[in-house]
Design brief:
With 507 residues, this protein is of the alpha+beta class. The protein has 13 helices and 13 strands. A hairpin with an 8-residue loop joins β5 and β6. The longest helix is centred in the C-terminal third of the chain and has 69 residues.
């Protein structure tokens, strides 16, 4: 997606795919494409024009066949990919390791590159454009442009200015991050297609997409396109992982190798058809060989300080699964940030689903434990009832018979056990002693050093609030009683005065 260490290119009608070198490094930045006019997975028509895959350099970062591809020669299965699509045979292949391109290639120092370095050094240190003190100011300005990674550096009237890009070794906006190395093998046949469409649109027309890709492969009946997974990407893009299964006439089937399928997709006419489907990037998802990883780590990318590259290898948190990748410019940093946010959202969604599942399992466990306890009590009750029924049945069956010898032995054993339990120095006596000690401790009020009970803070607050309300209610009730008592005293005083007045009149 973001960085690519050289993308291989294939030619139609041949079974050879070579890795196209991308200079010292496969480039940074984003790929500019022109998508189809409408979103449809119908059979594409080859217009013969070059679009995303034709005239635009692919600058995505994929651990695919950009690190080196294989060319196969041989015969296919009947009318399979060997003759229909020019893949080469899938049964008998003679592999030839091509020269590693992109980051792994170490091209000879060309004279043009030497002149470029000389011109860059002249523009940064000693420009001779004006012939006075203004050249020193121009040198500082060129240095600032080189540090920023944009602009043109003028240094001589007879030579063209130097174009400063973010890939120049003086650019300061560089960092090194880490990406996961793919663990899929070439035999798995996984190829990634990035569509410039939303995930919902892709999923709603997944079957139509499969049919369209099958038509891109020539509509061969021995081939079947399968979707391994669909994942959302930033900027309303979607990653679709596919693999193709080839069935032979004898009934056996096998997956088409990822490098072979990717080489077919890289053909010029196939690129145009994929572009019409909305594909902006394709890459083979295959693991790196130890030699490729070693060569990648030993050769720093263009414009990256070897010391920083070596330090990134030392700081690698997991050298078995992660590989350092350069980040140049704010666009690349923003892209990685968006990808990281997208993965964080996906992880959070998965964690939420797992949390819901755990909560549901905990509820089921609580219900199951309660049912088990209920069934245990029910089993104990039924066991006691069954024992009582057996006892009554045995009593009725033995009614009228004398006690037998074995029953007498059981009675003697039970009496012996009862006597042992009732003995003063045996179990019953010890239990009585323990009970008396417990009563003595309770009588003298001995308590444990630690608290025996604990009240929750919220519950304690509620209790205090309730007691406060009760106290306020009692205070209000007491005030009402006092008022009533005063009223009763006034009534009694009035009655006494009335009786006294009446007594004086009658006298």
């Amino acid at each position: 997606m973001a960085f690519n260490f050289g993308a291989p290119s294939g030619t139609s009608g041949t079974a050879t795919a070579t890795a196209a070198p991308a200079g010292g490094f496969g480039g940074f930045g984003t790929t500019t494409t022109t998508a189809g006019s409408a979103f449809s997975f119908s059979a594409p028509t080859n217009t013969g024009t070059t679009g995303l895959f034709g005239g635009t350099q692919n600058k995505g970062f994929g651990f695919g066949t950009g690190f080196g591809t294989t060319a196969g020669t041989g015969t296919g299965l009947g009318t399979g990919l060997g003759t229909g699509l020019g893949f080469g045979g899938f049964n008998t292949q003679q592999q030839q390791q091509t020269t590693l391109g992109g980051l792994f290639s170490q091209p000879a120092q060309a004279p043009a590159q030497s002149n470029q370095l000389i011109h860059t050094a002249s523009a940064l240190s000693a420009p001779a454009l004006l012939g006075d003190e203004r050249d020193a100011i121009l040198a500082k300005w060129n240095q600032l442009q080189a540090f920023w990674g944009t602009g043109k550096g003028y240094f001589n009237n007879n030579n063209a200015p130097v174009e400063f890009t973010q890939e120049n070794p003086f650019c300061r906006f560089k960092a090194v991050g880490y990406s996961c190395m793919p663990s899929n093998k070439d035999e798995d046949g996984l190829v990634v297609l990035v569509f410039n469409r939303k995930e919902t649109d892709i999923r709603s027309q997944q079957q139509q997409l499969v049919e369209s890709l099958h038509k891109v492969l020539g509509g061969n009946q021995t081939l079947a396109v399968n979707v391994e997974g669909i994942k959302t990407l930033p900027d309303d893009q979607t990653e679709v992982v596919i693999y193709v299964v080839e069935r032979s006439p004898n009934g056996t089937s096998r997956r088409v190798p990822a490098t072979t399928l990717y080489a077919h997709f890289e053909q010029a006419n196939i690129k145009t058809q994929l572009q019409q489907l909305g594909v902006t990037l394709s890459m083979a998802r295959t693991e790196l060989s130890p030699a490729q990883v070693k060569q990648l780590l030993q050769n720093p990318p263009a414009g990256v300080d070897p010391i920083i590259w070596e330090q990134a290898q030392v700081d690698n948190p997991d050298s078995e699964k992660l590989i350092p990748v350069p980040m140049v410019g704010f666009k690349e940093l923003l892209r990685r940030l968006k990808v990281q946010d997208q993965m964080t959202k996906q992880h959070q969604t998965r964690l939420d689903i797992i949390s819901e599942d755990i909560s549901e399992l905990q509820k089921n466990q609580t219900t199951t434990v309660a049912k088990i306890a209920q069934y245990k009590r029910k089993l104990m009750d039924l066991s006691h009832r069954t024992l009582q029924v057996l006892i009554k049945q045995e009593i009725q069956r033995k009614s009228g018979y004398a006690i037998q010898a074995d029953e007498e032995q059981l009675r003697v054993q039970l009496d012996t056990i009862q006597c042992e339990l009732n003995a003063p120095t045996q179990f019953k006596g010890r239990l009585n002693e323990l009970m008396s000690q417990i009563r003595m401790q309770n009588h003298f009020g001995q308590v444990r050093s630690e608290e025996r009970y604990y009240i929750d803070a919220d519950l304690l607050r509620e209790i205090k609030q309730h007691l406060k309300q009760q106290q306020e209610g009692l205070s209000h009730l007491i005030s009402i009683i006092k008022d009533d008592l005063e009223d009763i005293k006034l009534v009694e005083h009035g009655l006494n005065e009335t009786i006294h007045i009446r007594g004086g009149v009658f006298s």
